[in-house]
Amino acid sequence: MKKIAIFPGSFDPFTKGHEDIVIRGLKLFDEIIIGLGHNSKKKRYFDLDTMMQYIEETFKDYPHISVIAYDELTANLAENHGARYLLRGLRNTTDFEYENSIAQFNKQLVGDLESVFLITSPAYAYISSTIIREVHRYGEDVSAFLPYKL
Ligand code: ADP
Question: What is the reported pTM?
Answer without folding.
Answer: 0.95
